[in-house]
Protein backbone atom coordinates (compact mmCIF):
# COMPACT_ATOMS: atom_id res chain seq x y z
CA UNK A 1 0.00 0.00 0.00
CA UNK A 2 1.31 3.44 -0.92
CA UNK A 3 1.38 5.86 2.03
CA UNK A 4 2.38 9.43 1.38
CA UNK A 5 4.33 11.32 4.03
CA UNK A 6 3.35 14.98 3.91
CA UNK A 7 6.85 16.41 3.88
CA UNK A 8 9.59 17.61 1.55
CA UNK A 9 12.18 16.17 3.95
CA UNK A 10 13.26 12.75 2.70
CA UNK A 11 14.87 12.06 6.06
CA UNK A 12 11.43 11.69 7.62
CA UNK A 13 10.73 8.75 5.32
CA UNK A 14 13.83 7.02 6.64
CA UNK A 15 12.74 7.59 10.25
CA UNK A 16 9.17 6.39 9.68
CA UNK A 17 10.34 3.35 7.72
CA UNK A 18 12.73 2.43 10.53
CA UNK A 19 9.96 2.73 13.13
CA UNK A 20 7.60 0.59 11.05
CA UNK A 21 10.30 -2.07 10.68
CA UNK A 22 10.92 -2.02 14.45
CA UNK A 23 7.24 -2.53 15.21
CA UNK A 24 5.93 -4.56 12.27
CA UNK A 25 8.94 -6.60 11.20
CA UNK A 26 8.40 -8.12 7.77
CA UNK A 27 4.93 -6.56 7.66
CA UNK A 28 6.51 -3.14 7.14
CA UNK A 29 7.28 -4.16 3.57
CA UNK A 30 3.56 -3.79 2.81
CA UNK A 31 3.88 -0.02 3.21
CA UNK A 32 5.44 1.90 0.33
CA UNK A 33 6.39 5.29 1.74
CA UNK A 34 6.53 8.22 -0.67
CA UNK A 35 7.15 11.88 0.18
CA UNK A 36 4.84 14.68 -0.89
CA UNK A 37 7.92 16.49 -2.12
CA UNK A 38 8.81 13.73 -4.57
CA UNK A 39 5.29 14.07 -6.02
CA UNK A 40 5.64 17.86 -6.30
CA UNK A 41 2.62 18.38 -4.07
CA UNK A 42 2.19 21.91 -2.67
CA UNK A 43 2.65 22.77 0.98
CA UNK A 44 -0.68 23.76 2.54
CA UNK A 45 -0.94 26.87 4.69
CA UNK A 46 -0.42 25.79 8.30
CA UNK A 47 -3.02 27.98 9.94
CA UNK A 48 -3.96 25.64 12.79
CA UNK A 49 -3.58 26.84 16.36
CA UNK A 50 -2.35 23.50 17.77
CA UNK A 51 0.16 20.91 16.66
CA UNK A 52 -2.72 18.47 16.18
CA UNK A 53 -4.56 20.83 13.86
CA UNK A 54 -1.49 21.49 11.72
CA UNK A 55 -0.59 17.81 11.44
CA UNK A 56 -4.14 16.96 10.40
CA UNK A 57 -4.47 19.73 7.83
CA UNK A 58 -1.22 18.62 6.15
CA UNK A 59 -2.26 14.97 6.06
CA UNK A 60 -5.81 15.85 4.93
CA UNK A 61 -4.47 17.96 2.07
CA UNK A 62 -2.29 15.14 0.72
CA UNK A 63 -4.92 12.44 1.18
CA UNK A 64 -7.64 14.53 -0.48
CA UNK A 65 -5.39 15.33 -3.45
CA UNK A 66 -4.00 11.86 -4.06
CA UNK A 67 -6.51 9.32 -2.76
CA UNK A 68 -3.69 7.68 -0.77
CA UNK A 69 -3.37 7.44 3.03
CA UNK A 70 -1.16 10.22 4.35
CA UNK A 71 1.03 10.71 7.40
CA UNK A 72 2.04 14.15 8.67
CA UNK A 73 3.53 15.59 11.81
CA UNK A 74 3.92 18.99 13.42
CA UNK A 75 6.13 19.81 16.36
CA UNK A 76 7.74 22.54 18.37
CA UNK A 77 9.12 23.67 21.71
CA UNK A 78 6.97 24.47 24.73
CA UNK A 79 8.59 26.52 27.50
CA UNK A 80 6.64 26.31 30.75
CA UNK A 81 7.53 29.74 32.14
CA UNK A 82 6.53 31.35 28.82
CA UNK A 83 2.99 30.00 28.95
CA UNK A 84 3.73 27.20 26.47
CA UNK A 85 5.32 29.52 23.90
CA UNK A 86 6.87 29.43 21.36
CA UNK A 87 4.69 26.39 20.57
CA UNK A 88 3.40 26.28 17.00
CA UNK A 89 5.45 29.42 16.28
CA UNK A 90 8.72 27.69 17.19
CA UNK A 91 10.21 27.68 13.69
CA UNK A 92 9.52 31.40 13.16
CA UNK A 93 9.81 32.73 16.71
CA UNK A 94 12.24 35.50 15.71
CA UNK A 95 10.17 36.46 12.67
CA UNK A 96 11.70 34.49 9.80
CA UNK A 97 10.87 30.83 9.30
CA UNK A 98 13.75 28.46 9.91
CA UNK A 99 16.28 31.00 11.23
CA UNK A 100 17.58 28.75 14.02
CA UNK A 101 20.30 31.13 15.18
CA UNK A 102 17.90 34.05 15.57
CA UNK A 103 15.24 31.88 17.22
CA UNK A 104 17.74 30.56 19.78
CA UNK A 105 19.12 34.01 20.51
CA UNK A 106 15.65 35.48 21.08
CA UNK A 107 14.57 32.62 23.33
CA UNK A 108 17.74 32.91 25.43
CA UNK A 109 17.20 36.65 25.82
CA UNK A 110 13.59 36.14 26.90
CA UNK A 111 14.47 33.68 29.67
CA UNK A 112 17.89 35.10 30.60
CA UNK A 113 16.88 35.84 34.19
CA UNK A 114 14.91 32.65 34.77
CA UNK A 115 16.55 30.43 37.43
CA UNK A 116 17.62 26.87 36.66
CA UNK A 117 14.71 25.23 38.45
CA UNK A 118 12.19 27.10 36.29
CA UNK A 119 13.81 26.57 32.89
CA UNK A 120 11.74 23.46 32.20
CA UNK A 121 10.47 22.83 28.70
CA UNK A 122 9.41 20.06 26.39
CA UNK A 123 9.27 19.29 22.73
CA UNK A 124 5.84 18.14 21.57
CA UNK A 125 4.91 16.39 18.33
CA UNK A 126 1.54 15.50 16.85
CA UNK A 127 1.57 12.74 14.23
CA UNK A 128 -1.52 12.17 12.08
CA UNK A 129 -2.72 9.43 9.77
CA UNK A 130 -5.54 10.40 7.38
CA UNK A 131 -7.25 7.81 5.20
CA UNK A 132 -9.24 8.88 2.11
CA UNK A 133 -12.22 7.15 0.55
CA UNK A 134 -14.00 7.44 -2.77
CA UNK A 135 -13.84 10.42 -5.08
CA UNK A 136 -16.26 13.22 -4.38
CA UNK A 137 -18.92 13.84 -6.97
CA UNK A 138 -19.18 17.62 -6.58
CA UNK A 139 -17.35 19.78 -9.12
CA UNK A 140 -16.12 22.22 -6.49
CA UNK A 141 -13.90 19.62 -4.83
CA UNK A 142 -12.59 18.46 -8.20
CA UNK A 143 -11.68 21.98 -9.29
CA UNK A 144 -9.89 22.61 -6.01
CA UNK A 145 -7.61 19.67 -6.73
CA UNK A 146 -8.88 17.70 -3.75
CA UNK A 147 -11.34 15.18 -5.19
CA UNK A 148 -11.15 12.52 -2.48
CA UNK A 149 -13.28 12.44 0.65
CA UNK A 150 -11.73 11.68 4.05
CA UNK A 151 -12.95 8.56 5.84
CA UNK A 152 -10.81 8.36 8.99
CA UNK A 153 -8.26 10.34 11.00
CA UNK A 154 -5.92 9.35 13.82
CA UNK A 155 -3.68 11.68 15.82
CA UNK A 156 -1.08 10.72 18.42
CA UNK A 157 1.04 12.97 20.67
CA UNK A 158 4.62 12.49 21.80
CA UNK A 159 6.65 14.64 24.21
CA UNK A 160 10.30 14.93 25.21
CA UNK A 161 10.67 16.84 28.50
CA UNK A 162 13.85 18.57 29.60
CA UNK A 163 15.46 21.88 30.56
CA UNK A 164 16.94 24.84 28.71
CA UNK A 165 20.55 25.97 29.08
CA UNK A 166 21.92 29.51 29.16
CA UNK A 167 24.09 28.97 26.07
CA UNK A 168 24.06 26.53 23.14
CA UNK A 169 26.08 23.29 23.13
CA UNK A 170 26.59 20.76 20.37
CA UNK A 171 26.79 20.64 16.60
CA UNK A 172 24.15 18.05 15.68
CA UNK A 173 20.43 18.46 15.24
CA UNK A 174 18.61 21.66 14.36
CA UNK A 175 16.25 24.24 15.81
CA UNK A 176 16.49 24.52 19.59
CA UNK A 177 18.48 21.29 20.02
CA UNK A 178 21.68 23.08 21.20
CA UNK A 179 19.76 24.67 24.09
CA UNK A 180 17.75 21.64 25.21
CA UNK A 181 18.87 18.93 27.65
CA UNK A 182 16.35 16.05 27.60
CA UNK A 183 15.44 14.37 30.87
CA UNK A 184 16.08 11.00 29.20
CA UNK A 185 19.73 10.52 28.36
CA UNK A 186 21.57 7.92 26.26
CA UNK A 187 23.39 5.12 28.06
CA UNK A 188 26.84 6.56 27.38
CA UNK A 189 25.86 9.86 29.02
CA UNK A 190 24.42 8.15 32.08
CA UNK A 191 27.51 5.98 32.47
CA UNK A 192 29.79 9.02 32.16
CA UNK A 193 27.71 11.07 34.59
CA UNK A 194 27.05 13.86 32.08
CA UNK A 195 23.93 15.36 30.56
CA UNK A 196 23.89 15.98 26.82
CA UNK A 197 21.90 18.44 24.81
CA UNK A 198 19.92 17.08 21.87
CA UNK A 199 22.61 18.62 19.65
CA UNK A 200 25.34 16.60 21.40
CA UNK A 201 23.59 13.29 20.78
CA UNK A 202 24.04 11.04 17.79
CA UNK A 203 20.96 10.93 15.55
CA UNK A 204 20.05 7.40 16.70
CA UNK A 205 20.32 8.43 20.37
CA UNK A 206 18.05 11.42 19.85
CA UNK A 207 15.53 9.47 17.75
CA UNK A 208 15.21 6.83 20.48
CA UNK A 209 13.85 9.40 22.96
CA UNK A 210 12.44 12.11 20.70
CA UNK A 211 8.94 13.51 20.73
CA UNK A 212 8.55 12.71 17.02
CA UNK A 213 9.68 9.13 17.53
CA UNK A 214 7.20 8.67 20.38
CA UNK A 215 4.31 10.11 18.36
CA UNK A 216 5.12 8.04 15.29
CA UNK A 217 5.48 4.84 17.33
CA UNK A 218 2.08 5.52 18.88
CA UNK A 219 0.67 5.86 15.36
CA UNK A 220 1.96 2.44 14.24
CA UNK A 221 -1.11 0.44 15.40
CA UNK A 222 -3.33 2.60 13.17
CA UNK A 223 -0.96 2.04 10.25
CA UNK A 224 -0.89 -1.68 10.95
CA UNK A 225 -4.69 -1.83 10.99
CA UNK A 226 -4.78 0.01 7.67
CA UNK A 227 -2.33 -2.43 6.09
CA UNK A 228 -4.48 -5.36 7.20
CA UNK A 229 -7.60 -4.07 5.44
From TrEMBL:
<feature type="binding site">
    <location>
        <begin position="211"/>
        <end position="212"/>
    </location>
    <ligand>
        <name>substrate</name>
    </ligand>
</feature>
<feature type="binding site">
    <location>
        <position position="206"/>
    </location>
    <ligand>
        <name>substrate</name>
    </ligand>
</feature>
<feature type="active site" description="Proton acceptor">
    <location>
        <position position="74"/>
    </location>
</feature>
<comment type="subunit">
    <text>Homodimer.</text>
</comment>
<keyword id="KW-0547">Nucleotide-binding</keyword>
<comment type="function">
    <text>Pyrophosphatase that catalyzes the hydrolysis of nucleoside triphosphates to their monophosphate derivatives, with a high preference for the non-canonical purine nucleotides XTP (xanthosine triphosphate), dITP (deoxyinosine triphosphate) and ITP. Seems to function as a house-cleaning enzyme that removes non-canonical purine nucleotides from the nucleotide pool, thus preventing their incorporation into DNA/RNA and avoiding chromosomal lesions.</text>
</comment>
<dbReference type="Pfam" id="PF01725">
    <property type="entry name" value="Ham1p_like"/>
</dbReference>
<dbReference type="GO" id="GO:0017111">
    <property type="term" value="F:ribonucleoside triphosphate phosphatase activity"/>
</dbReference>
<dbReference type="GO" id="GO:0036220">
    <property type="term" value="F:ITP diphosphatase activity"/>
</dbReference>
<dbReference type="GO" id="GO:0005829">
    <property type="term" value="C:cytosol"/>
</dbReference>
<dbReference type="GO" id="GO:0035870">
    <property type="term" value="F:dITP diphosphatase activity"/>
</dbReference>
<dbReference type="InterPro" id="IPR002637">
    <property type="entry name" value="RdgB/HAM1"/>
</dbReference>
<dbReference type="GO" id="GO:0000166">
    <property type="term" value="F:nucleotide binding"/>
</dbReference>
<protein>
    <recommendedName>
        <fullName>dITP/XTP pyrophosphatase</fullName>
        <ecNumber>3.6.1.66</ecNumber>
    </recommendedName>
</protein>
<dbReference type="GO" id="GO:0009146">
    <property type="term" value="P:purine nucleoside triphosphate catabolic process"/>
</dbReference>
<feature type="binding site">
    <location>
        <position position="74"/>
    </location>
    <ligand>
        <name>Mg(2+)</name>
    </ligand>
</feature>
<keyword id="KW-0546">Nucleotide metabolism</keyword>
<keyword id="KW-0479">Metal-binding</keyword>
<feature type="binding site">
    <location>
        <begin position="174"/>
        <end position="177"/>
    </location>
    <ligand>
        <name>substrate</name>
    </ligand>
</feature>
<keyword id="KW-0378">Hydrolase</keyword>
<dbReference type="InterPro" id="IPR029001">
    <property type="entry name" value="ITPase-like_fam"/>
</dbReference>
<dbReference type="GO" id="GO:0009117">
    <property type="term" value="P:nucleotide metabolic process"/>
</dbReference>
<keyword id="KW-0460">Magnesium</keyword>
<comment type="similarity">
    <text>Belongs to the HAM1 NTPase family.</text>
</comment>
<feature type="binding site">
    <location>
        <position position="75"/>
    </location>
    <ligand>
        <name>substrate</name>
    </ligand>
</feature>
<feature type="binding site">
    <location>
        <begin position="7"/>
        <end position="12"/>
    </location>
    <ligand>
        <name>substrate</name>
    </ligand>
</feature>
<dbReference type="InterPro" id="IPR020922">
    <property type="entry name" value="dITP/XTP_pyrophosphatase"/>
</dbReference>
<dbReference type="GO" id="GO:0046872">
    <property type="term" value="F:metal ion binding"/>
</dbReference>
<dbReference type="GO" id="GO:0036222">
    <property type="term" value="F:XTP diphosphatase activity"/>
</dbReference>
Amino acid sequence: MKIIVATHNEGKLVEIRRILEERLGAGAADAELVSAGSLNLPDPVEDGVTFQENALLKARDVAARTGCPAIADDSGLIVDVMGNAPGILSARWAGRHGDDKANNALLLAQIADIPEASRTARFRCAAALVVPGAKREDDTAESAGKPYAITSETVEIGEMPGVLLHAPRGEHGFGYDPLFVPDDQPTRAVEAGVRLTSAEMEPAEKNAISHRGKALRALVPAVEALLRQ
